[in-house]
Amino acid sequence: MTAIPETMQAVVYRGANDLRVETLTVPKIGPRELLVKVAVCGVCPTDIKKIHYGTVPPPRIFGHETAGTIVQAGRNVKQFRVGDRVALHHHIPCLKCHACRHGAFAQCAQYKRTGITAGFEPAGGGYAEYVRVMPFVFPGVVKIPKRNSFLEGAMLEPVNTVLKAVKRLKLLRGDVVLVAGQGPIGLMFTRLLKLEGANVIVSDLLNSRLKLAREFGAKWLCNPAAKQESADKVETLPNLVQRLTRGRGLDAAVIAVPSDDVVREAQTLLRGGGQILLFSHTRRGEQTELDLATICVDEKDLIGSYSADVLLQPEVAKLVFSRRLDVRRLITHQFPLEQTAAAIELASHPTAESLKIVVNQVSV
Ligand SMILES: [Zn+2]
Ligand SMILES: [Zn+2]
After folding, report:
1. Which ligand ends up closest to the CA of 108?
2. How far away, in angstroms, is 83 Cα from ligand 1 center?
3. Distance 109 CA to ligand 1 centre (A)
4. pLDDT over 70 (residue 176)
5. Taking 90 as the threshold, does the pLDDT of residue 229 lie above it?
6. Which ligand is closest in space to the CA of residue 90?
7. Which residues surround ligand 1, an ion (CB under 5 A)?
8. Using only C-alpha atoms, what is the Rg of the chain?
9. Closest-lying ligand to the alpha carbon of 99?
C-alpha cells in the first residue's frame, strides 16, 4: 500500500460554471471514518445542474457516483479494511423519522446530508483524488467483487435511483410500458422493466440510442423525429400503442426526458388507472397545463421518483455485478480528473455517441 500524500488534486466548484483544478490537503479522517482513493466518479445530471445554475453556495467538490479503494480506516472501523475496493453511496436515510416511516427516504432530514467529502461543505467529493467517508453512510458502501471493475461500482448509485423508480410502478407481467428518452437512465429503465417482465416501447430522437435500447430489451422502438421526414412509412407512437395494446392504452409510461409535451402525450396514451412516472423533471418553478380530470376521473396516476433507496442496495449490487444489467455498455467516455469540466460539458450536451460519462483516475 502506497503512503498517503499530504496534498491532492481536486476540482473545486467556485461559482456558476466555474470549476477549478486546485491543490488541497488530503482529508484527515476520524476514528470512525474511512479515507478512499477515488478511482472512478460518474458525471450526474443533478451535479451538472448545480454547477450550471450555481444553485448552491461555493466552494464545493461535487461527484457522488464514486468507486475507489480504502487506503485508511479509522481505528474504530470494523466492517471495512484497507485495500477493499468499494462503491460509495452518499445519502442515507435515518429510517426512524416521520418521512422514513412513510418510506419517503429522499424527504428525510438526515438523507439530505451528504456523508462523503473531499473538503469544504460535503458534496460528494468524487472529483478529487481522495474522499473522507463518514460512518452514517457506511450502510450504503458496497465491496466490489474481484471480477468487476471500478466503473461498474460507480454505476450502483444511478442504477439504484432507477430501480427505486421501477418499484413505484404497479406492473403485471406482460404489461406494456413506454420509456421516453433513451439516455443512460432511460436505457437502465428499459433493461430493468424488461427484467420485471414488461413489454417495453422506447422513444428517442437518436437512432444510435434506439439501437442500443433494442439490445437492452426494448420490444418496440419509436423515433418521433422520423415521422416528419417520411410520414407514411413510419408508424407514429399513438398508432403503435393503439395496435400493441388493442386500443387499451399503455399500462405505464416513464418520462426520462425533461419535456412537458412528452408527459402530455403519454397521458393521452395511458389507459385508465395507469401510471406516469416523472424522472427528469427536476427543474423547479415551471408551470404546465394538464387536464386534471384525467387524474381524477380516469385515475391516471402522475407520480415521481427522486434519488436512491439504500435498502435496495443489495439488489442493485446483484443486478450490476451479475451483469444482468450490463452497465459497461453505457459508459462511452472517460475523462481524467483535470478534465472534469470537459466531462461535464459533454454530459450536458450529449452527442449521438455519448451516454454515461465518467471521470477516471488512471493512476489507480
Ligand atoms: Zn447521481
Ligand atoms: Zn428519516
Report:
1. 2
2. 25
3. 19
4. yes
5. no
6. 1
7. 44
8. 21
9. 2
Question: How far apart are the C-alpha atoms of 171 and 197, rounded to whole Å?
Answer: 9
Ligand 1 centre from 248 Cα, in Å?
35
Percent of the chain with pLDDT over 70: 97
Which ligand has an atom closest to residue 102 CA? 2
**Whole-angstrom distance, CA of residue 125 vs CA of residue 132:** 8
Question: Distance between CA 149 and CA 68 in Å, rounded?
Answer: 10
Q: Which ligand is nearest to the CA of 111?
A: 2
* 184-195 vs 156-167: helix crossing angle, rounded to 10: 50
Phi-psi region for residue 231, left (φ > 0), alpha (ψ -120 to 50) or beta?
A: alpha
Given pLDDT bands bounded at 50, 70 and 90, which one contains residue 216?
very high
| Structure-block grid coordinates of residue 212 | 442500443
Say which amino acid occupies 117: T
User: Which ligand lies nearest the alpha carbon of 126?
Assistant: 1
CA 102 to ligand 2 center in whole angstroms: 9
What are the angstrom distances between the C-alpha of 113 and each of 107, 225, 344?
11, 41, 23
Q: What is the pLDDT of residue 342?
A: 95
Q: pTM of this prediction?
A: 0.94
Cell of 189: 429503465
Ligand whose nearest atom lies closest to the CA of 109: 2
Q: How far is the CA of 10 from the centre of ligand 2 (A)?
A: 31
pLDDT, tens digit (0-9, with 9 covering 90-100), for 281-336: 988 888 899 999 999 999 999 999 999 999 999 999 999 999 999 999 999 999 99
Predicted local distance difference test score (pLDDT) of residue 144: 98
Kindly state the average pLDDT of the residues 191-196: 98
Ligand 2 centre distance from Cα of residue 89 (Å): 16
Contacts of 350 (CB under 8 A, 6+ apart): 183
What average pLDDT does the segment 38-53 reach? Answer: 93
- Residue 235: pLDDT band (50, 70, 90) is confident
* Bridge partners, 85 (sequence order): 69
296 Cα: distance to centroid of ligand 1 (angstroms)? 33
- Return the ligand number nearest the Cα of 282: 1
